[in-house]
Amino acid sequence: MAQSTAPNLGALEAILDRRAPGGRSELIPTLFDVQRLYGHLSPDVLEAIGRRLRVPLAEIHGVVEFYTMLYARPTGRTIVRVCTSPMCAQAGGQAALEAACGYLGVVTDQASADGQFQVERVECLGLCDHAPAALVGDTPVAHVDPKRPQEWVLRPREAPLGVIAGEPRWLSGRCGKIEPTDLEAYVAMGGYQGLARALGTMTPAEVVAEVKAAGLVGRGGAAFPTGAKLEMTAAAPADEHYVVCNADESEPGTFKDRLLMEGDPFFVLEAMAIAGYAIGARRGYLYVRGEYPRAQRILHQAIEAAQRAGFLGEDILGSGFSFWIELRSGAGAYICGEETALFDSIEGKRGFPRIKPPFPTTHGLFGKPTAINNVETLCALAWIVAHGAQAYRSQGTSDSPGTKLFCLSGDVVRPGVYEVPYGTPLADLLTLAGGVQGQLQAVLLGGAAGAFAGPDQLDLPMSFEGLRQAGLPLGSGVVMAIRAGRDLRQTLLSLAHFFAHESCGKCFPCRLGTQRQLEIMEKVAHGRASPGDVAALEDIGYAMTSASLCGLGMTAGGAILSALARWPEIFTDGRA
């Protein structure tokens, strides 16, 4: 990132000429373009953007202040983002952060004296299988060593592309086996069979019926029936419909969508086109979190290749169906994983959740009917259309058919993504990952917004109904192992810090609750909590769960309440 603010009016005007016709919806892409040009977003530049895009200056300032990857002041030319999420913190992320700062002679969020570097703490980079991890400029770096910061700060080596293990590898069979942007290899391994079948032999209603018959539900945590969502969106009267792929994968412990985007990008594009055909959409938006620059780069190349080959754009495969995909980058806000906050971000606003109803199926992006799903859900949809609902139901359980991508991290021998049928026992998943390093103390299921299972629950079937009976969430498929000897209070403190940092502040229960929860967990972590603090912590958790506007606040206290119920002694007396 350049720090210089020397005028380059010709380049600025070229950016504004290209972006201005899109108006407000082009605000965040414009801010990124201009930030790359000047290094930061100065007041005079923001005024020029406001005039050309016709956006009030006060609202532009609000957007810049909301997103952590937009900067209103000069920064270092290379930003070193060090992950301190629960997984990376457990593996030494805080020590790596301090080592980078010490080596460069800086404090966090401040540029070095020569303007070359800036070090930042990041809540999650989606590199939990490489913990502790960092993002140096646009290079994802695995297993950063706090004892040798010069090696990964000055000469960052790109983390390897992930390989998904497990059986059957329905959604992940090409990851690691082909060059991600090799379209011919993708087609040779069965790619675009689903789109060809949909456009060649099926009506849009038949596509929807196939997905409904398969019993596919959302894989991001909410588990809403995908076929019903497509059906309702298609039926909503409007002059335009949209498909949105939610690739703002920001839940600590979740990194499956990253592996699909980086290892099998055409699969994501094919799935979006099938969904577009099913609901009568001509345009889709692929919203990828800003902390995934490598995934964005790969997807850009894949989109261009798919358009050249006739798999995207006008008259796809000679069918008369046209569909375009626009790639949008997030700007550093966990809340934009919430579907309506994501819409606001695409529309050039701060990512605030909307009050429901109305729901996205009738009033979504730009106020139009919108089908929004995450990467894994869409890839499952494409597999179903290619192979049929009955084939999909041949794996899993009757209530949770098919396979699922589970993200294993923490104290396992081989962290990574594993594809297994729904209903696979938790113990088998841990075995696939090489087992636990040491004696198991706890397993965090569902991510930062999840809950804890104990070592006595390893026979749990990993399905919606199986975990529901145990009072546990399946969520996005996070399985984080914590060995005996780890201080669970530090894990809980890291979770509390994450939610306090990521709350958008729109609703009072979450805005105040996450901050108060963090304050109490700091006392707990240092052995200073009183019985009154613990009682207040429980009240705060239930208040956020019942009164928050969106899923962030509703689940912000979930893991802590789960730990409080299972290990009450650690909140006042010490470790579990």
Structural overview:
The protein has 24 helices and 13 strands. The strands form three sheets. It has a five-stranded mixed β-sheet, with helices on both faces. Helix 14 links the parallel strand 6 and strand 7. The radius of gyration is 23 Å and the shape is globular. The protein starts with 8 loop residues before the first helix and ends in a 10-residue tail after the last helix. The N terminus is likely disordered.
Task: Give a quick summary of the entry.
The chain is an alpha/beta fold.
What layout of secondary structure does this protein have?
Blueprint: H1 9-19, H2 27-38, H3 43-53, H4 57-66, E1 78-83, H5 86-91, H6 93-104, E2 117-122, E3 134-136, E4 139-141, H7 149-154, H8 183-188, H9 193-201, H10 204-214, H11 226-235, E5 242-247, H12 256-263, H13 265-279, E6 283-288, H14 293-308, E7 324-329, H15 339-346, E8 370-374, H16 375-387, H17 389-393, E9 403-410, E10 416-421, H18 426-432, E11 440-445, E12 451-453, H19 464-469, E13 478-483, H20 488-502, H21 508-525, H22 531-547, H23 551-555, H24 558-566
Parallel strand pairs: 1-2, 5-6, 5-8, 6-7, 9-13
Antiparallel strand pairs: 1-3, 3-4, 9-10, 11-12, 11-13
Helix pairs in contact: 1-2, 2-3, 9-13, 9-16, 10-11, 10-13, 12-13, 13-16, 20-21, 21-22, 22-24
- What is the global morphology? globular
* Alpha-beta classification: alpha/beta
Mean pLDDT, as a whole number? Answer: 95
**Number of helical stretches of at least 4 residues:** 24
